[in-house]
Specification:
Low-confidence stretches: none
Strand content: over 45%
Structural class: mainly beta
Distance between the termini: 40 Å
Number of helices: 0
Shape: globular
Largest sheet: 7 strands, mixed
Number of strands: 11
Length: 123
């Protein structure tokens, strides 16, 4: 059974920082790709950052490049998303997802999803 559990969301002022965590079950670590996606109210889900199992260089969406950093810690079966210089437009539910068939950063190819964690950037 593959399980993904996100944590770390909350309310933060513009310009602030948050670190999201995604703890995965042991077998989730056999992925081809793992990533962070987000969905803002009234908008479609979009990719934020992804990393392939064979690659150490994460992909970042243009909207977060230079502000967000994705990392992983295999010993803890956990991936992280460090979010700095947060903007109101970053407000969304953030999801962790993994694919066992593709390393593309595409929500349509993800096989398993967490339930999400809410990030609210507001003054």
């Amino acid at each position: 059974q593959v399980q993904l559990v996100e944590s770390g969301g909350g309310l933060v002022q513009p310009g602030g920082s948050l670190r999201l965590s995604c703890e995965t079950s042991r077998y989730a670590w056999d992925y081809y790709g793992i990533g962070w996606f987000r969905q803002a109210p009234g908008k479609e889900r979009e990719e934020v950052s992804c990393i392939a199992s064979h690659d150490d260089n994460p992909y970042y969406a243009d909207s977060v490049k230079g502000r967000f950093t994705m990392s992983r810690e295999k010993a803890k079966n956990t991936v992280y998303l460090q979010m700095n210089s947060l903007k109101p437009e970053d407000t969304a539910i953030y999801y962790c997802a993994t694919s066992f068939s593709s390393s593309s950063c595409d929500a349509d190819v993800m096989d398993y999803w967490g339930k999400g964690t809410l990030v609210n950037v507001s003054s």
